[in-house]
Amino acid sequence: MRVHLCVVGRLRAGPERDLVDDYLKRFDKTGRAHSLGPVKVHEVEDKKGGGMAAEAVLLRKALPAGAVICAMDERGDVMSSPDFAGRLEKIRDGGAQDLAFIIGGADGIDPSLRSDARMMLSFGKMVWPHMLVRVMLAEQLYRAASILGGSPYHRV
Question: In what order do the strands lie in the sheet with 68-77?
Answer without folding.
Answer: 39-44, 2-8, 98-103, 68-77, 119-121
